[in-house]
């Protein structure tokens, strides 16, 4: 029998994108409840009892409630994949970033509860963790992450505001330095010092860039940009969805090139003479930043082959 999946919150931005990707597969069945009962705990609990895996695409509090509903089923509880921020630093949930380490795919496959990574932390963690592990960046180094997202990152409410033309063309936010992604970014990048994180959102639907400036003369051994790029290349050799791309001199970077794919491009833009570098990660906030990664995790958790890119997406070398 093909494994079955219930998406709790399937009408939301992330839920819809996961559903679109799962509809391409013949080796899983997606089950739904009547739209008018989507917030009814009894209907959700009954559906949870019948499926192999539940994907939570809900606001954080609703995700916690839904996880508790599933736990109340005891031995009949399905596997859970949570797309919200609620469980990303919880010790009893596995972190669903398959490229976190060579062991992570097997850990995700074996876990009953997996939290899907946040959109912004995905790029920053993939850039920083290998460099911290290689000793090129000390764990307590002061790190700043600047990022820009398409407006779909703010879910249905932000999409409606941009489409009604009532939102600004571009704005910085998170300026209290308390953004919900910082704890996750710090933990999974392996940093002991809390990074500064400055997100921003612009008038385009989807696409994301994280960028991390570095003064190379403050790093141990004063590495040149090529040493950073080599470490990333070594770490992601053979990774299906991560591509380390040489930065071209004078190149510009726009955020939408990988939209609807599950790919991510990492670059080291360096100036050896100035002893400076900027690390960048470019991806789709709804792809590798959310639903693409979720479907990748579903494949691992259910042991089935999946397609993580939407049809019609520009085929990227990263895929
Ligand atoms: N957008 C993005 O780029 C990303 C979002 N996420 C995460 O995914 C989660 C969902 O976000 P997103 O899809 O953007 O949000 P949306 O606002 O687009 O969708 C949320 C969905 O959840 C439903 N919902 C809300 N409360 C309940 C409840 N108590 N019971 C059942 N359903 C409920 C909403 O229904 P209704 O509208 O009727 O209230 C809506 O359909 C969030 O935790 C977010 O952090 C993760 C990665 C990226
Ligand atoms: C533009 C925008 O508002 N983005 C959201 C992040 C997206 C999100 O909530 O998703 P995850 O935590 O699940 O990745 C924010 O900054 O809160």
TrEMBL record:
Gene Ontology terms describing biological process: L-arginine biosynthetic process
PROSITE patterns with a match to the protein in the record: ARGC
Pfam families: Semialdhyde_dh, Semialdhyde_dhC_1
Protein name: N-acetyl-gamma-glutamyl-phosphate reductase
Sequence intervals crossing the membrane: none
Protein location: Cytoplasm
Biological role: Catalyzes the NADPH-dependent reduction of N-acetyl-5-glutamyl phosphate to yield N-acetyl-L-glutamate 5-semialdehyde.
Matches recorded under HAMAP family: ArgC_type2 (MF_01110)
Keywords: Amino-acid biosynthesis, Arginine biosynthesis, Cytoplasm, NADP, Oxidoreductase
The enzyme's E.C. designation: 1.2.1.38
Active site: 119
Domain Semialdehyde dehydrogenase NAD-binding: 4-108
One MF annotation (Gene Ontology) recorded for this entry: NAD binding
Pathway: Amino-acid biosynthesis; L-arginine biosynthesis; N(2)-acetyl-L-ornithine from L-glutamate: step 3/4
Family: Belongs to the NAGSA dehydrogenase family. Type 2 subfamily.
Primary enzyme class: oxidoreductase
Catalyzed reactions: N-acetyl-L-glutamate 5-semialdehyde + phosphate + NADP(+) = N-acetyl-L-glutamyl 5-phosphate + NADPH + H(+)
GO cellular component: cytoplasm
InterPro entries assigned: AGPR, AGPR_AS, AGPR_dimerisation_dom, AGPR_type-2, NAD(P)-bd_dom_sf, Semialdehyde_DH_NAD-bd
Domain of life assignment: Bacteria
Keyword NADP: yes
């Amino acid at each position: 029998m093909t494994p079955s999946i219930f998406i709790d919150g399937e009408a939301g931005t992330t839920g819809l994108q996961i559903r679109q990707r799962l509809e391409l597969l013949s080796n899983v069945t997606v089950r739904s409840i009547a739209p008018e009962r989507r917030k009814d705990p009894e209907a959700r609990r009954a559906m949870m009892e019948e499926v192999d895996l539940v994907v939570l695409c809900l606001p954080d509090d609703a995700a916690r409630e839904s996880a508790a509903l599933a736990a109340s089923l005891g031995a009949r509880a399905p596997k859970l994949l949570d797309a919200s921020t609620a469980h990303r630093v919880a010790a009893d949930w596995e972190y669903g970033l398959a490229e976190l380490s060579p062991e992570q795919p097997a850990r995700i496959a074996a876990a009953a509860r997996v939290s899907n990574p946040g959109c912004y932390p995905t790029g920053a963690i993939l850039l920083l963790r290998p460099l911290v592990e290689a000793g090129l960046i000390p764990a307590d180094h002061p790190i700043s992450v600047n990022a820009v997202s398409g407006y779909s990152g703010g879910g249905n409410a932000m999409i409606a505001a941009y489409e009604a033309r009532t939102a600004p063309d571009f704005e910085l936010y998170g300026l209290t330095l308390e953004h919900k992604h910082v704890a996750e970014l710090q933990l999974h990048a392996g940093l002991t010092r809390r990074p500064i994180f400055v997100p921003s959102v612009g008038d385009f639907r989807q696409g994301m860039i994280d960028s991390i400036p570095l003064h190379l003369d403050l790093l141990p051994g004063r590495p040149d940009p090529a040493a950073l790029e080599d470490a990333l290349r070594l770490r992601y050799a053979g990774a299906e969805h991560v591509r380390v791309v040489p930065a071209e001199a004078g190149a510009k970077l726009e955020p939408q090139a990988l939209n609807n794919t599950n790919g991510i491009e990492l670059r080291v833009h360096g100036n050896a003479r100035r002893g400076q570098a900027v690390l960048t990660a470019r991806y789709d906030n709804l792809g590798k930043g959310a639903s693409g990664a979720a479907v990748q995790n579903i494949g691992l958790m259910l042991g089935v082959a999946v397609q993580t890119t939407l049809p019609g997406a520009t085929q990227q070398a990263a895929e």
